[in-house]
């Protein structure tokens, strides 16, 4: 008997899912052990030309009825957002349907509810497409590394921001100019807020932290979030001067004592020899550090209709195989309960650019402020500019709260004209 699929949404990703199911029908049947059929597609409006070549009778605006229909085995959700997606998926699960979703926002906000319902119903919930598109990342974290202790997950999980910063680095362009290019090429939305302010990456970071550290305590609201709108051409130039590149990073870390996790999203300087430094354009890459497996990197297309649909179909095959084997695989029932520690407790390094008065004793006064806050200076560079000078300092690792206090104290000094820029610096082995 064929496995019947209900599809929620038929936009860019949904249309690609339909196309792949049609084009690869024989291969899918061979991989699963049974044919795959689309039983219905829920859309907001009927009558639009969707280019799918499907029977118009398959389309419906009654998503609630579709997901609970007796002949439906699997619900694929690609509409996004919190509601009605959450209610529809919970209804489907309660009716005994397995679920495949690409909905990072829902999983980051209320993933625990979805997984609890699936466990109780004995069905699958898969969501490889929710983070990093076609890159096989979530299943390795959940399954392949389940017997290891992951210490850190650090990656570029938003192609739009990576494209913008890559253009700024390669061409010397400003943020606004690079954003316009990203929009013209279709990498950025007309309203790019979710990308450039870090909301998209924060949702993905929450999902990564949940899987990597087996804790349900992490939601998107727990993620320290900073966008890239404040990154300037001067920041890019400073990074180049110290052999670094600015990248939009999502970082999930286990504390040294293993008692808490830190989850953050922000631009940071990376040494150019770091594997993530070479990731250009709109590509994604995630770097995983585990105690036994060591360092692993996952790289590929992180967005787009076809890559995302590829991840959806991978999950569809997994669900189909489990269905034939009369089993299900979900998040482990064990919850480590690891809390999220505040950003101030995270150990990192700062790159600071200060405009100061060019007179004797200024550097000593600046160094004194660092010492007062328990922060050590790793290196310093000074350039004269007439009566003023520019000081560029990089700190040794210190708690973020101490570094932040240092910056605030520097802003108050008479000798400091302005704190021109503040950016974190990341590297291999930087922990909490």
UniProtKB/TrEMBL annotation:
Classification via Gene3D superfamilies: 3.30.70.260, Dihydrodipicolinate Reductase, domain 2, NAD(P)-binding Rossmann-like Domain
Name used for this protein in its record: Homoserine dehydrogenase
Pathway info: Amino-acid biosynthesis; L-methionine biosynthesis via de novo pathway; L-homoserine from L-aspartate: step 3/3; Amino-acid biosynthesis; L-threonine biosynthesis; L-threonine from L-aspartate: step 3/5
Enzyme class: oxidoreductase
Domain ACT: 351-424
Cofactor(s) the protein requires to work: a metal cation
Entry-linked SUPFAM superfamilies: ACT-like (SSF55021), Glyceraldehyde-3-phosphate dehydrogenase-like, C-terminal domain (SSF55347), NAD(P)-binding Rossmann-fold domains (SSF51735)
Cross-referenced PROSITE patterns: ACT, HOMOSER_DHGENASE
Similarity remark: Belongs to the homoserine dehydrogenase family.
Species this chain originates from: Nocardiopsis suaedae
EC number: 1.1.1.3
Reaction(s) the record says it catalyses: L-homoserine + NADP(+) = L-aspartate 4-semialdehyde + NADPH + H(+); L-homoserine + NAD(+) = L-aspartate 4-semialdehyde + NADH + H(+)
């Amino acid at each position: 008997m064929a496995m019947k699929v209900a599809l929620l949404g038929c936009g860019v990703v949904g249309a690609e899912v339909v196309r792949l199911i049609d084009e690869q029908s024989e291969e899918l049947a061979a991989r699963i052990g049974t044919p795959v059929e689309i039983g219905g597609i829920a859309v907001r409006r009927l009558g639009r030309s969707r280019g799918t070549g499907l029977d118009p009778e398959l389309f419906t605006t009654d998503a609630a009825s579709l997901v609970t229909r007796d002949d439906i085995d699997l619900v694929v959700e690609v509409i996004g957002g919190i509601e009605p997606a959450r209610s529809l998926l919970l209804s489907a699960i309660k009716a005994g349907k397995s679920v495949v979703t690409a909905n990072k926002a829902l999983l980051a906000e209320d993933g625990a509810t979805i997984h609890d319902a699936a466990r109780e119903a004995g069905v699958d919930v898969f969501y490889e497409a929710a983070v990093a598109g076609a890159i096989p990342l979530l299943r390795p974290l959940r399954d392949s590394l389940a017997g290891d202790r992951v210490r850190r997950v650090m990656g570029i999980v938003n192609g739009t921001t990576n494209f913008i910063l890559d253009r700024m680095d390669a061409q010397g362009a400003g943020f606004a100019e690079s954003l316009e290019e990203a929009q013209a090429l279709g990498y950025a939305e007309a309203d790019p807020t979710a990308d450039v302010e870090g909301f998209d990456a924060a949702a993905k970071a929450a999902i990564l932290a949940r899987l990597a550290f087996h804790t349900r305590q992490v939601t998107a609201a727990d993620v320290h979030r900073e966008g890239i709108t404040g990154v300037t051409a001067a920041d890019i130039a400073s990074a180049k001067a110290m052999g670094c590149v600015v990248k939009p990073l999502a970082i999930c870390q286990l504390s040294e004592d293993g008692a808490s996790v830190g989850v953050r999203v922000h631009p940071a300087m990376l040494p150019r020899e770091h594997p993530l430094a070479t990731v250009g354009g709109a590509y994604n890459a995630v770097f995983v550090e585990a105690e036994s497996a060591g360092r692993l990197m996952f790289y590929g297309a992180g967005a787009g209709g076809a890559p995302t649909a590829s991840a959806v179909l991978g999950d569809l095959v997994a669900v189909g195989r489990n269905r034939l084997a009369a089993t299900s695989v979900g998040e482990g029932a064990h919850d480590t309960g690891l809390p999220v520690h505040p950003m101030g407790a995270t150990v990192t390094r700062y790159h600071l650019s200060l405009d100061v008065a060019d007179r004797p004793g200024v550097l000593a006064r600046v160094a004194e402020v660092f010492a007062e806050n328990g922060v050590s200076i790793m290196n310093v560079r000074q350039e004269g500019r007439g009566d003023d000078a520019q000081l560029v300092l990089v700190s040794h690792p210190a708690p973020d709260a101490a570094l932040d206090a240092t910056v605030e104290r520097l802003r108050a000094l008479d000798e400091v004209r302005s704190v021109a820029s503040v950016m974190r610096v990341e590297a291999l082995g930087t922990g909490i």
